[in-house]
């Protein structure tokens, strides 16, 4: 059984958390919702979600993929070195790393963008470029084990890419 880590924090974009969470469950994956601490997290649209685990209590080798939703949560997550180390270790192991909207902020702080094709919400394009990434205007961008998307409208295409990538593993 594949195991997914979904990273959340306060002000996560509700749909960008819920859609992947349920898609992974639907596909039969074990899903851990991970935050800076094991707690209740409030979404941008008012949802309340529970983090199953604190980042200090997990190891990257126990997961097949990590998903970073957007909203304002990535700006909070990126300041935690345990979060950025986890994402870096996932990428170094060539495990699937996926981020949507503002989620690539975490990838930037993890140092995994250099020379990689990525997309994002338009307002963080300069951040990706300044981190050495190659920003594309595509709704979804795939670069080896890295899959990024612009916003919720791109989630169906993003999940086709994620599922295809996981089937090849």
What features would you describe in this structure?
With 169 residues, the chain is an alpha/beta fold. Helix content is 33%, strand content 24%. It contains six helices and eleven strands. The chain has helices at 14-26, 73-77, 81-92, 104-110, 125-130, 155-167; strands at residues 3-7, 30-35, 40-42, 48-50, 53-54, 65-68, 96-100, 117-118, 134-135, 140-143, 146-149. The strands form three sheets. The chain has a seven-stranded mixed β-sheet with strand order 5-2-1-6-7-11-10, sandwiched between helices. The chain has a two-stranded antiparallel sheet with strand order 3-4. The protein has a two-stranded parallel ribbon with strand order 8-9. Helix 3 (81-92) crosses helix 4. It starts with a strand and ends with a helix.
